[in-house]
Request: fold
Amino acid sequence: MKYMIRKMLVVAVALAFIALTSAQNKAEQTAEKIADRIVASTTYKFVDKKTGETYTTVKDLPLNPDITVDSKYNKWHYTNGVTNIAMLELADKAGDKKYEDFVLKNMNFVFNEGNLEYFHKLYDQAFEKEGWPAVRNVTWHMIFRGKRLDDNGPMGASLIELQKRHPEKAFLDYIHQTADHLNYAEPRLKDGTIARLWPHVNTIWADDAFMAISFLARMGEFTHDKKYFTDAAKQVLNYTKYLWCSEKQIYYHCYHTDTKENGVAHWSRANGWVFMAQADLLARMPDDHPLKKKVIENFRMQARGVARYQGKNGLWHQLLDKEDSYEEITGSAMFVYGIACGVKNGWLHPDMIYVAEQGLKGILSKITPEGDVTDICVGTGIMPSIQYYYNRPTQINDPMGEGPVLRALVAMIDAPRYTEIKAEDQYDEIGAKEK
Reply:
């Protein structure tokens, strides 16, 4: 009988190992399927919205405000910054240069093929005629606007990663431009905390932890200037001061400094931005930096809080503390990514990988066999009603979700497996006397 029980246990352990190994293999296969779809669907063309005519370059065209970039993956947007970072990470992990070539081709399409000057002229023309509202309709307007971290933070961060592989003057110039914005122009509170001037004057958005730190951490690594790491670490600790809910052990979406009130929502993706930002910072921060231990402690605190809200399917809800809100993939992916990085780097206890494993299963359930990523919450601002967050629509195959999902899948490819210490393995330690 004991032999049969032991044999059954061995079989169960073997099956569990096979299932997990299969999930990790599927993570790599799924990441490549998503990435291949993105590569294949990126057109590197421009289209006239009125006539439907397409062009491979605009440098010799007369100025036409109806000309726009064709592919969403060629747009200048923070979501593509995350996707570009993910594609470079996949290229490194899978050993496949085509994903790196994709990012290089994207950036050359913007900076080095004569297209940028055309849209700069359109931007200046629109601004002169109708001001800030009009420039939103111009392709790549965020490059020229440079007034907020959405304009330049994550895209600048991805350019740093690309610059290390493929040095280009145009890339480097933009990197320095972004650094100048963060150092001297970005709105901040008196204590240095990055804030936005809307929806209230000096509102702190959890989202901006990643919008800023994705760049600051990489700039510190790129330049070896510790001031960038110090600024990034202070952002983490200050954001926690303003946004952390000690009762629920998660972050609020925002804090309004004028009313000294937090917003109504513990939005999943907002918490994900903070978590992913910390993982990115810790991966690059020198061990001897005086604030690194505090950031690790903060990261562990958030990991413990996040683990409390994981749903039965391995995913996290749109509103972390509201189980009647829908399961959402972007926040879930950011949590899986952060936990996987935390365990692999020793910032988190190895047991935490179990949370990431269950999260991986949930993420895979939201991706179709064709590599389509579903249940991506659309872009979401700050509103004073919880109903707003409940009712945010979802979309399929948008960089808003594809970047975080790719990062999570890549991080899980070589993640350690959860192993449980069996009670019977410890019995000999109980009551043992020293000889």
